[in-house]
Structure formats: structure tokens, C-alpha cells
């Protein structure tokens, strides 16, 4: 997965952290958790606030 795969990242996070409400996640934690996903293979420096917001929004959809 890459930073542009917001939906896939969100699904993985939802599976890995089923009890975490994405509305409560800080961007620093989100970035670290994404980097720790087994299938994630992108440069850590290629993320930004817009990308992390997109992941959070997708995760919120999956969480509900």
C-alpha cells in the first residue's frame, strides 16, 4: 500500500484497532500505525495532513 490508498489503509487500521474510534486518533499516532502495517510500503516523508485526514475519513466510514 501507498499513501494514496486511503481506503485500503483505513480497512487495515479498522481490522488492527477495532476498538479505537478514529475521531480520537492524533496524526502522530496515525502516521506511526500506518508505517507499522505489514502491507504498507511507502516513504514516511510522503505523507501530509491532507493524506492523513483522508485516511481518518475513510476509517470513520469503516468504523461506523
From TrEMBL:
Any one Gene Ontology molecular-function term assigned to this protein's record: ferrous iron binding
Coiled-coil stretches noted in the UniProt entry, renumbered to this chain: none
InterPro entries referenced in this protein's UniProt entry, alphabetically: ISC_FeS_clus_asmbl_IscsX (IPR007479), IscX-like_sf (IPR036762)
Biological processes per GO annotation: iron-sulfur cluster assembly
Protein name in UniProt: Fe-S assembly protein IscX
One Gene Ontology cellular component annotation held by this UniProt entry: cytosol
